[in-house]
Design goal:
The chain has 254 residues and is α+β, with helices and mostly antiparallel strands. The protein contains nine helices and six strands. Strand 3 and strand 4 form a beta hairpin. It holds the Pfam family DUF3891.
């Protein structure tokens, strides 16, 4: 089990290492890095006490977590980000909107949430413009792609054991990382990934050098969760660091 905020912090590390020559000259670099690292901070409290999904017989994940509490913590996380960086909150709000659209979920609460977030983004746009810091569409679009890629790459690592064979890669990533062909350095090619032991090879390569990252994982025995309850078993299970080397590699195209 992986904490959502730890996943977010890993995404932030990827953003900080992204090819600098590909980042447009702009005023909001530090805010973008903060937003990407903290885009899942709404899950901080939820992750301290995981919930069991009785129907699926597994812990709830970010995919199937009940809508109403999930939206409550989405709002809380965005509110916290906005106190630090309004532009970061705008960026993360757009990111959540895209995730909801992709999920295909449909509920009255989602409609209300999306309307409220549209109002948040409109307000932030007005405030930034009033303060002489208006956001250009190209800048916002680029930063949205960067957030999506770094989120996806961190998620890729969280969803796979190092060394996973290509045939067993999660369906979300069978054809590479969505929208990455739009980065200039890719030449229109989508970034793909392949495991070689504990090394994850990427092609085209979005960073300037190879590096190692670590993601804390709790491997909670199912028997312990069944006998003691998930929350108690989780709290007593120590975190184990999983280290992965990120490197460049020429890969077969999907």
């Amino acid at each position: 089990m992986i904490k959502q905020h730890d996943h977010g912090l890993l995404a932030g590390e990827f953003a900080s290492r992204f090819r600098r020559e590909e980042v447009p000259r702009k005023r909001h670099t530090d805010e973008v890095l903060y937003a990407i690292a903290n885009h899942d901070r709404g899950w901080v409290d939820l992750d301290e006490t995981p919930f069991w999904n009785d129907t699926a017989k597994v812990p709830y994940s970010f995919i199937d977590f009940p809508v109403v509490p999930k939206l409550t913590f989405y709002r809380r996380g965005l509110d916290e980000i906005e106190t630090v960086t309004p532009y970061g909150a705008l960026l993360c709000s757009l990111h959540y909107e895209r995730l909801i659209e992709v999920s295909g979920e449909n509920a009255p609460e989602l409609t209300v949430y999306l309307q409220e977030e549209e109002q948040r983004r409109s307000r932030i746009h007005r405030e930034l413009e009033k303060n002489g810091a208006a956001i250009g569409e190209a800048e916002l679009y680029y930063d949205s792609r960067l957030l999506q890629f770094c989120d996806d790459l961190s998620l890729f690592i969280g969803l796979h054991e190092p060394g996973t064979q290509t045939k067993d890669i999660h369906p979300w990533f069978k054809e590479g990382f969505s929208r990455t062909g739009e980065f200039d350095f890719t030449g229109g090619r989508v970034i793909t990934a392949e495991w070689r032991g504990t090394t994850l090879l990427l092609d085209p390569y979005p960073f300037t050098e190879s590096f190692e990252v670590t993601l804390p994982v709790r491997r909670v025995p199912r028997s312990e969760a069944a006998s003691r309850g998930l929350a108690a078993a989780y709290s007593c299970t120590p975190e184990t660091p999983v280290s992965v080397t990120i490197a460049e590699g020429e890969l077969k195209r999907p």
